[in-house]
Amino acid sequence: MESFVICVAPELLTNPDLDICYELPEILSKESSGLIQSEGYEYTDDKKAILMHFAAHRLDKALPVVIEVIEQIEVLDNDLKKAAIVAVENGEHYDVVYPLGYKGQFTL
Description:
- This protein has two helices and five strands.
- By secondary structure, it is an alpha+beta fold.
- A hairpin with a 6-residue loop joins strand 2 and strand 3.
- The protein is globular.
């Protein structure tokens, strides 16, 4: 299984409902026909963002679903395009795959 994380900044959400930690994984699982599995969530050390952990057997199939959900589906009345970062585990670090052209540093 390959791992990835979706980092969501509640301050950038229209409706910063923490139920997003449950709703987004359900949507991803449904939209991917079970390919994407939730591995829980946690808050960043500074408590400014939520890190949702996921796994998939086929990351090449899973990531397009993740990006489509972020770009096309409102979750609890939230447009995730402005608030979500998707990063793939790559050994000791994470590579950001969404948004395209992401310039910041990403660490857990």
